[in-house]
Amino acid sequence: MLNWSEIEARVNEAMATAILPGLAMAVIQAGEVVYTHGFGVTSDIPAAPAVTPETVFRIGSVTKSLTATLVMRLVESGALDLDRPVTDYVPWLRLHDPNAARLITLRMLLSQTSGLPTSLDYAGWREASGLEAYVRTVLPSLPLAAPPGAVYAYSNPGYNLAGYVAEAATRVPYTTLIQRELFEPLGMTRTTFDPLLAMTWPLSQSFLLDDDGKPYVKRPFVDNTGEYPCGFAISNVDDLAKIVRMQVNDGLHDGVRFLSSESIAAMRRPHAEQYTLDERTYGLGLRQRTYKNVTLVGHNGAISKYGAFMWWQPEGKAAVILLSNRSANFWGAGDRIVLSLIDSMLGLTQKATPTAPAKAEIPLAAYAGAYLSPNIGLAVLSIKDGRPSLSLNGVPLTLELVYGRLYNGKRPKGGAVPVGFAGTADAPVLYVDGSACLRVSEPLAGCEPDVWAERLGTYSGETDRWHLRLDGDQLRLYSEDDRIELPALPIDDHRLASDFGLFEYVEGETPMLVGGGGLWRFYRETATA
Question: What CATH number should be reported for the domain holding residue 240?
Answer without folding.
Answer: 3.40.710.10
